[in-house]
């Protein structure tokens, strides 16, 4: 009966044989543990999956748990590793939520409501999301809405005010702004255009 190390040795030998046959004398890359399937230790595979996922960007615990489940990692191993990664600070939903908001709010101009929906989809607890969203300054949110409307207005000069209003309010609604705030911002920015202030 073959063991996991026999399987690794045979893969390494095969890679060296291919390298020799093609004229390359370099050392083969280490085998992909996930590709080994049942021959690999599930805990080693799960740890590699988690580290690979966390290499490019921060992830929420739920995103990582979903990834492990998709790779058929046993639930007890997944829970144990996720807990350990959380203990050492590699998984931190609070920091993830703050970073997510810091990147999405100014860049995309998203309002609290849209950010809350995104965080919920990422599996962030409502209380953690609420605490992170409370750090958004209402003046910054208003300024972001105004900037979005000003930027979009530049492309709408040929349209009448009714069409512009409808489209701009719709855009702000899709970004998570309340209808009251959206109408106020659009009305003010259209008035500024009429008076030549924008």
UniProtKB/TrEMBL annotation:
<dbReference type="Pfam" id="PF02631">
    <property type="entry name" value="RecX_HTH2"/>
</dbReference>
<keyword id="KW-0963">Cytoplasm</keyword>
<feature type="domain" description="RecX second three-helical">
    <location>
        <begin position="92"/>
        <end position="133"/>
    </location>
</feature>
<dbReference type="InterPro" id="IPR036388">
    <property type="entry name" value="WH-like_DNA-bd_sf"/>
</dbReference>
<dbReference type="InterPro" id="IPR053925">
    <property type="entry name" value="RecX_HTH_3rd"/>
</dbReference>
<comment type="similarity">
    <text>Belongs to the RecX family.</text>
</comment>
<dbReference type="InterPro" id="IPR053924">
    <property type="entry name" value="RecX_HTH_2nd"/>
</dbReference>
<feature type="domain" description="RecX first three-helical">
    <location>
        <begin position="46"/>
        <end position="84"/>
    </location>
</feature>
<feature type="domain" description="RecX third three-helical">
    <location>
        <begin position="139"/>
        <end position="185"/>
    </location>
</feature>
<protein>
    <recommendedName>
        <fullName>Regulatory protein RecX</fullName>
    </recommendedName>
</protein>
<dbReference type="GO" id="GO:0005737">
    <property type="term" value="C:cytoplasm"/>
</dbReference>
<dbReference type="InterPro" id="IPR053926">
    <property type="entry name" value="RecX_HTH_1st"/>
</dbReference>
<dbReference type="InterPro" id="IPR003783">
    <property type="entry name" value="Regulatory_RecX"/>
</dbReference>
<dbReference type="Pfam" id="PF21981">
    <property type="entry name" value="RecX_HTH3"/>
</dbReference>
<dbReference type="Pfam" id="PF21982">
    <property type="entry name" value="RecX_HTH1"/>
</dbReference>
<dbReference type="GO" id="GO:0006282">
    <property type="term" value="P:regulation of DNA repair"/>
</dbReference>
């Amino acid at each position: 009966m073959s063991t996991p190390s026999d399987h690794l040795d045979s893969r390494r030998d095969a890679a060296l044989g291919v390298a020799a046959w093609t004229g390359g004398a370099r050392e083969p890359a280490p085998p992909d543990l996930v590709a080994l399937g049942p021959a690999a230790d599930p805990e080693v595979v799960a740890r590699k999956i988690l580290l690979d996922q966390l290499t490019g960007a921060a992830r929420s615990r739920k995103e990582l748990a979903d990834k492990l489940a998709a790779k058929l990692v046993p639930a007890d191993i997944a829970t144990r590793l996720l807990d350990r990664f959380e203990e050492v600070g590699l998984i931190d939903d609070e920091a993830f939520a703050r970073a997510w908001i810091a990147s999405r709010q100014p860049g995309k101009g998203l309002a609290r409501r849209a950010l809350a929906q995104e965080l919920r989809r990422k599996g962030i607890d409502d209380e953690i999301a609420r605490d992170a969203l409370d750090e958004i300054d209402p003046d910054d949110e208003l300024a972001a809405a105004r900037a979005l409307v000003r930027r979009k207005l530049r492309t709408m000069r040929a349209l009448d005010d009714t069409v512009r209003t409808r489209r701009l309010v719709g855009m702000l609604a899709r970004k998570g702004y309340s209808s009251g705030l959206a109408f106020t911002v659009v009305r003010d920015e259209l008035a500024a255009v009429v008076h030549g202030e924008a």
